[in-house]
Amino acid sequence: MGDILRKEVLKAFRTLHKARKIVFKGDLKALTAARDRINEEFKQKKSVDDKKTIEQLIEHAHEVAKELRTTVVQAEEKQPGVFQLKITEETLKLDNKVFDPNVEIPPDARKRMRNQKCCQEK
């Protein structure tokens, strides 16, 4: 592996660990599990020597780090049944649409929804 490619692999490794520390801050169990998983994934791919494959793995590592930073939030139980979310600056926030119980659902949409299997029935 070339020197530049090696630096990119190490950068991806560090990026994942930084994301892990931000996302799971204060949760020792999650921090440890994420660390072990990252380290194990890199160890498994250590013998890969194809440049294109390595570049794809580097890109994947950066995508995973971004996904962690932008979509994973922690919930801390403050009292029974009451949770506080730990949202960071990077957390992706979507518009929250208020449910309208009076909305008209087209008949064909209802039929399609009835015909769909529940995810637990698959």
Automatic annotation (TrEMBL):
Lineage of source species: Eukaryota, Metazoa, Ecdysozoa, Arthropoda, Hexapoda
Top-rank taxon: Eukaryota
Short name of one Pfam family: Complex1_LYR_2
Matching PANTHER family: COMPLEX III ASSEMBLY FACTOR LYRM7
GO cellular component, one term: mitochondrial matrix
Family from the record: Belongs to the complex I LYR family.
Keywords linked to the UniProt accession: Chaperone, Mitochondrion
Any one of the GO BP annotations: mitochondrial respiratory chain complex III assembly
Listed GO MF terms: protein folding chaperone
InterPro entries referenced in this protein's UniProt entry, alphabetically: Complex1_LYR_LYRM7, MZM1/LYRM7
Organism of this sequence: Rhynocoris fuscipes
Name this protein carries in UniProt: LYR motif-containing protein 7
Protein location: Mitochondrion matrix
Record keyword Protease present: no
